[in-house]
Amino acid sequence: MSVKISDDNDIFFTGHSNGTIHQWDFKTGQISQTFNSLGKVKKGKTVENLMIWTLCIVDNKFLISGNSKGGLCVWDAKFGVSIKEFKEHEADILTSCMNKETKTVYFTGSDSVICTIQLIQDEWRLTSKFRGQSHDINSICLLKYSKIFIV
Known about the structure:
By secondary structure, the chain is an all-beta fold.
């Protein structure tokens, strides 16, 4: 469903249709850790049909996942422990992007609401939420530009 490579290219993460996220080691090709979506684990099994649609990695310390139930989860990437969950969406979170400089993550999806979370003083906080249009948003990207002066 989703794939994200770490900044140092040592590991990558895959999101699956059963609510799990696997961390893979590039060198061995083996799964080194499995993350189970927050609140979804019941007696060793995950909830069926919980799609992990999008993943973001922040400073190789945090993994952020968006799912088909409108939940965004922030994980400790080293230990696979859920740190915080945001439930700002009524429908699937389909895409996300990140500003590395400000440690800000933008996420959106089927309900066309665009939300922003930011790492502020070691805590993830919701910093904005707005609806820009009435249709699904399947892709979002952050553009960085510089001013060019022509003399």
